[in-house]
Amino acid sequence: MSFSELFESGFKKRNEDHFAAIVRVAMSDGIINEAERAFLDRLATRLDITEADYKAILKDYASHPINPPTSYDNRLERLFDLARMVWVDHIEGEDQVKLLQKLCIGLGFNPDNVKYITDKALALVHHEVDADEFIEKMKKMNQ
Length: 143
What we know:
Blueprint: H1 3-26, H2 34-46, H3 51-59, H4 72-88, H5 93-107, H6 114-126, H7 131-140
Helix pairs in contact: 1-2, 1-5, 4-5, 4-6, 4-7, 5-6
């Protein structure tokens, strides 16, 4: 196996585990509603999850480890991507907030702060900030 193949397989596995963790979060209430399904479809495309892998993960998502990023910056980067996807998918109102709150907990944010983090993240993506500005402003809210 070449070095590039080793890197690609590790990257693919990390994406699958990340996707499975998001599926696990979506399934935390026992069902995946239409808004969550649309979000998962979009996320699978962005993470290069094949249709076969998508179906396998949905069937057995619990077998994948949950590995939230240990670095705060990496958590904020993932939150930025996920908040943008939730916003772009036009998941409206309470569903939008609930989904992003679940995702924040799955990313390893403190459940006590999830409402504030979610509101701030959605406000920032609504104002179309870039990733660097998003991370900077999210960090400032914790100071």
